[in-house]
Specification:
alpha+beta, Ribosomal Protein S5, domain 2, 3 helices, 19% strand, globular
Length: 118
């Protein structure tokens, strides 16, 4: 479970991130980042209804992405707000494929300090 301190919860912060953040999109996930000045990186995971209309399928993607983030938290640079946006291709991806996609998206935006071996 991703620790509570690493979660971006306030709607105003999420709206600022989406309006002023820098984005990079991959085939399975997209990423938006913005500096927050807090010394702590916070994440929000967005899986829209366009990915799948059933909530249990969307929640499965959320759980997988949270597990990936928790596993690689030590390699992620502090001081950012990060949104991980799932695309419909994430639904059919295996855990390993999703992990590669999330880590490559984080590397493209410059949040991943050290690329771990997969």
């Amino acid at each position: 479970m991703l620790p509570y301190d690493y979660r971006l919860k306030k709607e105003t912060d999420i709206k600022k991130l989406f309006s002023k953040g820098k984005g990079v999109f991959d085939t399975k996930v997209g990423t938006k980042i913005r500096k927050n000045g807090l010394g702590q990186t916070r994440f929000v995971i967005v899986v829209g209804v366009k990915v799948h209309k059933r909530a249990f399928r969307r929640n499965r993607i959320r759980r997988r992405v949270r597990a990936i983030l928790e596993e690689h938290l030590s390699h992620i640079a502090p001081d950012y707000d990060v949104a991980i946006i799932a695309r419909p291709e994430a639904l059919t991806a295996s855990y390993k494929e999703l992990e590669v996609s999330v880590l490559s998206a984080l590397k493209k935006v410059g949040v991943l300090d050290d690329v771990p071996r997969l």
